[in-house]
Amino acid sequence: MLHYVTTNAGKVREAREYLDQVTPLDYDYQEIQSETLAPIAAYGARAAFEHVGEPVIVDDAGLFIDALDGFPGPYSAFVEETLGVEQVGQIARAQQTDSDRASASFRCVIAYCDGESFGATPEPVDRGRRGQDLAADERATATTDDTVDSGTVPVKLFEGTVLGRIVEPRGEGGFGYDPIFEHNGTTFAEMTAEEKNAISHRGRALAKFGDWFAKR
């Protein structure tokens, strides 16, 4: 059984589009502080594996705004709670130039741990599975696959990214930064759940992990 460390039912539904058997695991591990997502997800995966003793995946995600040097990045949840989404959007738009147009990206890293070592890196994702995103910039599918060891239990990482820009809030759906993040002319909050999942950063990471996991 593969355990997904989350209490978010929406994440589990999205994961089941790519994985045959996955069950949510309610496990509250202590997150480390890092300027990048990968170490946070890797630490969580190791902690969860030690807790449950079975294969686990942990994800960490964030909004990275180019004009703000990647802020809020790994601190996105904390910044949302303290500063607020609209304030972040105002700051980003105030810093934009004609060249960057408040460019930003949503990124997600999925970390997998089962206590064993890993072989070759995964094959590239079949982009045909992301049918609603055929026009996406090639950078949006760039991934950082790695086996993190550091003398402890190995962790395999899968990254997904979707490019966009920061705009005035629009839309009633989604959550978090969705109203201010526009991709191909539409904010995440203006999309249906199916439309958003078809191009989401988490979906990209899950697709790549799913392809690799099916071969284990």
TrEMBL record:
Ranges that cross the membrane: none
Q: Fetch the InterPro entries from UniProt.
A: ITPase-like_fam, RdgB/HAM1
| Regions of compositional bias (Basic and acidic residues) in chain numbering | 124-140
Q: Which keywords does this chain's UniProt record carry?
A: Hydrolase
Q: Where is this region: Disordered?
A: 121-148
Q: What is a GO molecular function of this protein?
A: hydrolase activity
CDD domains according to UniProt: HAM1 (cd00515)
Decide whether keyword Hydrolase is in the record: yes
Does the record carry Hydrolase as a key word?
yes
Q: Could you say which protein family the record assigns here?
A: Belongs to the HAM1 NTPase family.
| Official protein name in the record | Non-canonical purine NTP pyrophosphatase
The organism is: Halocatena marina
